[in-house]
Specification:
Layout lengths: L5 E2 L2 E2 L8 E5 L2 H13 L4 E4 L5 H7 L4 E5 L7 H18 L3 E5 L13 H9 L7 E4 L7 E4 L2 E6 L7 E4 L19 H6 L6 E4 L8 H12 L5 E4 L4 H17 L3 E5 L2 H11 L21 E5 L4 H8 L5 E5 L1 H5 L3 H17 L4 E5 L8 H25 L4 E5 L1 H10 L4 E9 L2 E7 L9 E5 L8 H7 L4 H5 L1
Parallel strand pairs: 3-5, 3-6, 4-5, 6-13, 7-12, 7-13, 11-12, 14-16, 14-17, 15-16, 17-20
Antiparallel strand pairs: 1-2, 4-18, 8-9, 9-10, 18-19, 19-20
Helix pairs in contact: 3-4, 7-8, 11-12, 12-13
Length: 467
């Protein structure tokens, strides 16, 4: 792969640093974006905090850098502080595209993980007047048409129906950020973006010139953001070319959306780069060389199916009330001891949150869920402090973000695909017992029914390759 790529005048790698910077509002989504960029042949590293010059110098040339965060759980003030630091860091690196990676279902609220707060904060560090919101990710069966979001849902990943997001069986009833509005323009307006324009899917068939003319007309009103419909991957190619052209004129350009933003960007590169130069075919994930530990904090119906299908694991239940109650330290110590004993005996272990918490009230979710995520993080840290493992898995967006941050590590690099939207990464840490450990992070809505078995036995099926 050459050191510099030109896309309609846009360098894939500037002389000062990486051309693409992304912030994941949770860790699971950040690893999915990492995977898409790595599979496109871009040398990419995902950090847990903005990297300093010494760290970047040690790693050598990077085409893209990511920062895995937890903004989707934050209230506006904390979110602004987090993203102001991130925006300044990306701008200092000289990125041309600054990607705020959100969940593919766009679940957010004015007071929790506000996409509006993110756009207003990051826009202060972006010179380009265009804020591009990419509305769908077809590889995950997320679609945006005439501004409205649709998403697949159900317990069987292969036989899911597609729902308008405000009728989705899970996301419409999310305990903290329920998606009760399908029109993403209205959804973003409720988060403080008064002028949200949109490009509907019919524009793409008219060609690049017509698409550019349509966008120029929309930009005359100085919109807070422009939402792009997405129904299939050809739409992402058109959007990627548009982003590339605008970023070449003035950068950074702020793009918002799921990993489809990275897909769009990579497709623009691949249009002009010889595919023979790109190492986009990942090596398959081989069988684990030792016991595997999975921590399932997700309460989604799909994760429940995945737990039931994990026949190669011994299960350890985690009671939410005892994990967060007055006697939590004693209960945590007892659960850790049980897990460590099984792992030392060579057994695979699946620790999971008791299902009676599967439908918490909104008040319970706001009070108990953060405490539970922190308790799960403490459990994982304690287990890894007592037994050395080659491979682990964490299920749940909030659980993944908080648990990985609790470890003494600084980054992740791409290792192999596992399933649609699920990636196995290599952990980078100063401590030798953690450095190189293989980590799967997955959101509640992601993965096949036998995902945890795949994590143990290795997997590189069509779903993973297409994700």
């Amino acid at each position: 792969m050459s050191d510099t790529r030109e896309v309609n005048g846009m360098s894939g790698m500037s002389s000062a640093g990486p051309a693409y910077g992304f912030y994941g509002d949770d860790f699971t989504g950040a690893t999915d974006t990492l995977a898409h960029l790595a599979r496109a042949g871009l040398r990419t590293m995902l950090f847990f905090a903005p990297p300093d010059a010494q760290r970047l110098s040690m790693l050598g040339r990077l085409d893209a850098v990511g920062i895995a965060g937890a903004a989707r759980t934050m209230q506006p003030h904390a979110q602004h502080q987090e993203l102001a630091r991130v925006g300044a860091a990306f701008a200092a690196l000289g990125v041309r595209v600054m990607h705020y990676k959100v969940c593919s279902t766009f679940d957010s609220a004015p007071q929790t993980g506000s996409i509006g707060v993110a756009i207003r904060t990051l826009r202060e560090h972006c010179a380009n007047s265009l804020v591009a919101v990419v509305g769908g990710q077809p590889s995950l069966r997320r679609y945006c048409v005439f501004g409205e979001l649709f998403a697949a849902g159900g317990e069987d990943a292969h036989q899911q129906s597609v729902y308008r997001i405000d009728r989705h069986p899970t996301m419409s009833r999310h305990p903290v950020t329920p998606m009760n509005e399908a029109d993403l323009r209205v959804h973003l307006q409720r988060q403080g973006l008064k002028n949200v324009q949109s490009v509907d899917w019919r524009c793409y068939a008219r060609g690049d010139a017509a698409l550019q003319t349509e966008l120029d007309c929309l930009l005359e009103s100085k919109p807070d953001a422009v939402l792009f419909d997405v129904l299939d991957d050809s739409h992402l190619q058109a959007i990627g070319g548009l982003i590339a052209r605008h970023a070449a004129i003035r950068s950074p350009l702020l793009a918002v959306g799921a990993s489809s933003v990275a897909q769009a960007y990579a497709s623009a590169l691949n249009d002009v780069v010889d595919r023979g130069e790109v190492s986009a075919v990942p090596a398959p994930l081989t069988r684990a060389r030792g016991p595997v530990f999975v921590l399932a904090g997700s309460l989604s119906p799909l994760t429940e199916v995945q737990i039931a299908a994990a026949q190669s694991y011994l299960r350890v239940e985690l009671d939410p009330q005892q994990m967060t109650g007055n006697a939590a330290p004693d209960y945590l110590a007892e659960r850790v001891a049980a897990i460590v004993a099984l792992l030392r005996d060579g057994r695979n272990v699946l620790a999971f949150t008791t299902r009676r918490m599967a439908h918490p009230t909104a008040d319970a979710a706001r009070s108990v869920m953060p405490q539970l995520a922190n308790a799960n993080a403490a459990l994982l840290k304690a287990v890894l402090g007592k037994v050395r493992l080659q491979r682990i898995g964490i299920a749940g967006g909030d659980t993944s973000s908080i648990a990985v941050r609790a470890l003494d590590a600084w980054g992740l690099s791409y290792l192999a695909p596992l399933s649609a939207g699920v990636t196995v990464c290599r952990l980078h840490a100063e401590r030798s017992e953690l450095d190189g450990m293989e980590v799967m992070l997955k959101g509640g809505q992601m993965g096949d029914a036998d995902l945890f078995e795949q994590l143990l036995n290795g997997y590189a099926g069509d779903e993973a390759a297409d994700s």
